[in-house]
Each structure stands twice: as structure tokens, then as C-alpha cells.
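Hi both,

Apologies for the delay on this - the queue was longer than expected. I finally got the zinc ion-bound model through. Below you'll find the protein sequence and the ligand SMILES exactly as submitted, and right after that the C-alpha cells for the full complex including the ligand.
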Amino acid sequence: MKNNRIVIALCAGILLFSCQETDENVVPNQQQVEEEIVYSDLRFPPMKVNRVTENARMVESEYQAKLYMAEYIVAPGSTEMGRTVLFDNKGSKKLSIDFAPQSKMYGTPDMSYYIDSYRPASSLAPADSRMAIENSLMTWEGATCSELNLYDIGPAPFPVGIVASILGFPSVEAYGADIENLGFMPGAFFNFLAPGGENSILGVTFTFFWIDENGDPVDQNNDGKPDAAFREIYYNDNFNWAVDGSHIDLETVALHENGHGLSQAHFGTLFQKQKGDFQFSPRAVMNAGYTGIQRTIGKTDLAGHCSIWANWPNK
Ligand SMILES: [Zn+2]
């Protein structure tokens, strides 16, 4: 009993001390917020899905695809930071899911991408939008620690997107590339992720992974991580997008989303002012909130990227 009291007193002392230390670094009237992982009530059963080939033919996937998570980024002025939403969670902690060359759809370690042309932004010319997204992909391609060899699979014959289809938006339930930028969705799409999502969520990346006939995750490269199947990225058409700095910068958000496309998670601690403005420390592409134009990869972003991709296509 006596010992316990000493331990408690010691802990309290350490806590007080560390609080004081932290307080010195925090701007007054700001509150530190941790990224919260939330669980969705939506159920997406594992399913065989069709891959769209050239000539609009469909090929059924070898494995079943399962939706694992959604990671979203919020707009300035939002009262909460972006989050990771886990689907059909069985109480396990968040897994990291990585591509494995052996289970990739085209049998090459080169990373394929797709950019939708059926769901343009209301506020941007399609060519500007495409250029911004391509630029963001080339920025990740330019990281010297990795050899992604990103390549465009070209146009699809119709709008694709599995999540869009499941949520009732016009879309063919199919996929075509490792990283899919599936265009701009109406605000209502984002209310499935969070209440009021139409007014707070700028973009989201959905991660699917492969499972075998027994329902177990496929891990072809034995790295202890389920193999990513593909990722679907959607942008919110309820916002004004820009490529000239006048509104939300598409290249900045695309760099963030395609970072998720390349398996990176959110990074950085949020400090929120009482009025709702926020800032991240350190500022990074992979912060869960938009804080202005950032079209280059930060130090922590690069470290995260290289930890995943430096040895690709090996383990
Ligand atoms: Zn994000």
C-alpha cells in the first residue's frame, strides 16, 4: 500500500513535469488533438471484383477484395481533423497494408495509376485538374529513394469506382489501376464518412486488400502485412478547387491522397485554436488537415515514403 502511494506520487510528479515542458511549446488557447480512428457501421462484404482491361473487357480478380479503411483530409475551418475510418473491424488495431509485387494486378512491380475523366470538378477545367493530379504523382515519383515507375493506364470506357457504386452513385463496380483518382463526387458522398462531411472533407482514399478463399489476408511477399489490392481516391466537388492558389489547391490535396495511395498514413500533431483554426506540427503533406499550398514533399513525408518504398520491389 505504502509502495503504491510512492509510485502514484512519482507518476504524478512526472506527469506535472512533462505537462510543464509541453506547455512551453504550445501557443496559448490551443489544444492538442490526436488523430482518432473511428469505426464505420457500413458493411462492405469481401467480393470478387472486375478489372477493366483495354477494349472495355472485364476480368474477374483472382482474390476477393475487401475494403479496409478510408483516410480523409479536412478543409480549413473544420472543427475536427481528418480521420481514419475502419470498416468491418474486429477489434484489432490498425494494420499497415502494403502492395506486394506478386499480388499486383498487372504482374509488374511498376505502379499503375488512373485519372478519371467522367467526374470533373465544377470549379476546374478538366485539363487543369488532370495536370494537378499528374504533377502530384510525379512529385512522389521524384523521391530518389524509390523506384515507383508510375505509369498511366489510360482512359476507362465508363466511370469506375467500387465505393461510389456501393454508395449508390453512378459507377461501374470495377477497378483498373493500383492507385485510382476517381474524380469529384457530390458533397453527399462524404456524409457517409462523417456527419457534415460534405462541408469538411476535401478528399478521401479508400484502401482495399486481397483476401483468399479462407477469408485470410493475402501476404504474398511475407512481410507480415496484408497485400494492398488497389486504392480509390475521391475529391469533394462541394469545394472550390484551384490550380492558381485562389481556392483549395488541388495539387496539394492530390499529393496527400496519392501519398495514401502509396501506403502512407497520416502524420503530425494537430494544435487547434478555440475558434477552430488549426496548425500541425511538423507541417507535412500527410497532415490530416489542409493548411495551405504544399506541393513538395516534407522531411517527414520523405522518411515515411522511403521506409515503405526504398527496397521495392523487394521486401
Ligand atoms: Zn489523409
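Main takeaway for now: The chain has six helices and 16 strands.

I'll put the files on the shared drive as well.

H.
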